[in-house]
Amino acid sequence: MGKKEREYNFFNDVYEVVKLIPKGRATSYGAIAAYLGTKMSARMVGWAMNAAHNDKTIPAHRVVNRNGQLTGRFHFKAPTTMQYRLEKEGVKVKDDTIVDFSKVFWDPHKELY
DNA sequence: AAGGTGACCGGTT
DNA sequence: TAACCGGCCACCT
User: Fold this and answer.
1) What nucleotide is nearest A74 when CA is compared to C1'?
2) A75 CA, B8 C1': separation in Å?
3) Which end of chain A is more exposed for a tag (fewer CB within 10 A), N or C?
4) Residue A99: is its pLDDT beyond 90?
5) Is the confidence at residue A59, as pLDDT, over 90?
6) Containing domain of residue A71, as a range?
7) Where in A19-95 does DSSP place strands (E)?
8) Do the beta carbons of residue A98 and residue A22 sit within 8 Å?
9) How many domains does chain A have?
10) Does A53 contact strand C, using a CB cutoff of 7 Å?
């Protein structure tokens, strides 16, 4: 098995959850890690998103940090891309932070089974 | 082969 | 309020 394939298998669980985030909602790195179990740390979720950043099938813009900040914005094509995509879905962003994040927040632990 | 490094997090100072 | 700390764990050098 090649390196690229192994990498994809390893991060696959993260990608599957990210793909389930509904339009107009967002979750956090830590929430995904908690949902997947103790083996996966929030840092690893960030690493997985980094590895996936050109995959158009993964809505990476819907993953932010626990405070709703768009900490991953510099990894997009332009630093404004992440905010643009969120606002296009009706999510308001101010000062690189999602407005009313608690209402936009999508917790995989509660919304998935 | 060992140590540095994250698109992080919760708690403490 | 902001800075810091320890835990996290696969990757990279």
Assistant:
1) B7
2) 16
3) C
4) yes
5) yes
6) 3-111
7) 27-28, 63-64, 93-94
8) no
9) 1
10) no
